[in-house]
User: Fold Adenylate kinase isoenzyme 6 homolog from Stentor coeruleus.
Amino acid sequence: MESKFPNILITGTPGTGKTTLSRLLEDQLSQEYPGKFTLIGLSKMIVDQMLFKNWNKDFDVPEFDEDMVCDALEPRIQQGGLIIDFHSCGFFPRDWFDIIILLRATNTNIYDRLIERGFPEKKITENIEAEIFNVVHDEVYESFDPSIIISQNSNTVDEMQANLEQALQIIRQKIISC
Ligand SMILES: Nc1ncnc2c1ncn2[C@@H]1O[C@H](COP(=O)(O)OP(=O)(O)OP(=O)(O)O)[C@@H](O)[C@H]1O
Assistant:
């Protein structure tokens, strides 16, 4: 789907820095293109709008309903200029996004960041294993055209800044070429 303002997905294992990068990106894009971009933290939206049918008691998270999530997002996707921050992506229609940013981080960084956020040990282990076994990486590359995927390491503040600059450059270019 081509839209004047690109739809952007920021994905990766929890703790890789999706929320941080999304906010920086939205902040900058809002200054450059006022009113044209909206950030959705999908985990929060799923809880707020109850886009789930079951609650996973072991991990204390909702088991989101893919159809409910897609139905809720569809009208906004059609308008373009949506930035979505979410740790899963295989259920989104293939033509929804113009740019996908996949964040990676080392096990040590993910561990430290999730410990700091008070995640239970079980949830941390699951996420670290997911990163080791490339779960989100494989999901992204199996679900979308590789030409729209940007894979970035997000271990340091300098890398985060470089990731932001690279993403902005690609988004600006995309806007000009549309
Ligand atoms: N590149 C980085 N360098 C240093 N610290 C970082 C970096 N990326 C993220 N952090 C820090 O790691 C923590 C987790 O980051 P963030 O919440 O953005 O991750 P997330 O991928 O959105 O996680 P979740 O999916 O659980 O919401 C935050 O305290 C953030 O400041």
Notes: The first strand starts at residue 8 and ends at 12.
